[in-house]
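Worked example 3 (structure in, sequence out).
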């Protein structure tokens, strides 16, 4: 079973690195393709495949403030989450905005919705969540990689504290 999972991860990783990932053409198409493949890897609960889009030294800050320093650290943290609270979670990227502060830097903002996440003790399924993710991508040797990511839960207006 473990060999099959590793084989599946390798196949998915190879598919994720297909020629459509190269940024030689329209950068919007290349980044949209990355976002589609990130969503696919997430919904397959494949931390290694998800991590292939990150630079080795990428910084990732999750919704609860945990800071992963480097792709390996992030992949381990994500694999732990996929084997526990997020084992049944599915994510949908609802809106993606891309801007280019420079030719080789892109900033994306992604509105996402997640369902199927369980409490940390796996006792109950949480209500669906929504959030926004900010990514900083850099074009390196004609390929876009994520160098920074910040995830934030969206708080419904009725739940916000009023001062």
């Amino acid at each position: 079973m473990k060999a099959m999972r590793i084989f599946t991860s390798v196949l998915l990783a190879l598919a994720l690195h297909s020629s459509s990932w190269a940024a030689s053409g329209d950068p919007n198409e290349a980044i949209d393709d990355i976002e589609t493949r990130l969503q696919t890897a997430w919904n397959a609960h494949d931390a290694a495949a998800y991590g292939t889009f990150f630079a080795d030294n990428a910084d990732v800050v999750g919704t609860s403030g945990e800071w992963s320093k480097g792709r390996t650290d992030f992949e381990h943290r994500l694999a732990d989450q996929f084997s526990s609270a997020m084992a049944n979670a599915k994510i949908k990227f609802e809106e993606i905005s891309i801007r280019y502060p420079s030719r080789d830097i892109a900033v994306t903002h992604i509105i996402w919705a997640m369902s199927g996440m369980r409490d940390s003790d796996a006792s109950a399924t949480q209500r669906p969540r929504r959030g926004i993710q900010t990514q900083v991508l850099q074009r390196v040797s004609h390929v876009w990689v994520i160098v920074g990511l910040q995830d934030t839960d969206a708080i419904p207006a009725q739940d916000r504290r009023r001062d």
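Notes: The domain at 2-156 is CATH 3.10.450.50 (Nuclear Transport Factor 2; Chain: A,). The beta strands are 54-61, 67-69, 90-102, 105-115, 129-140, 143-153.
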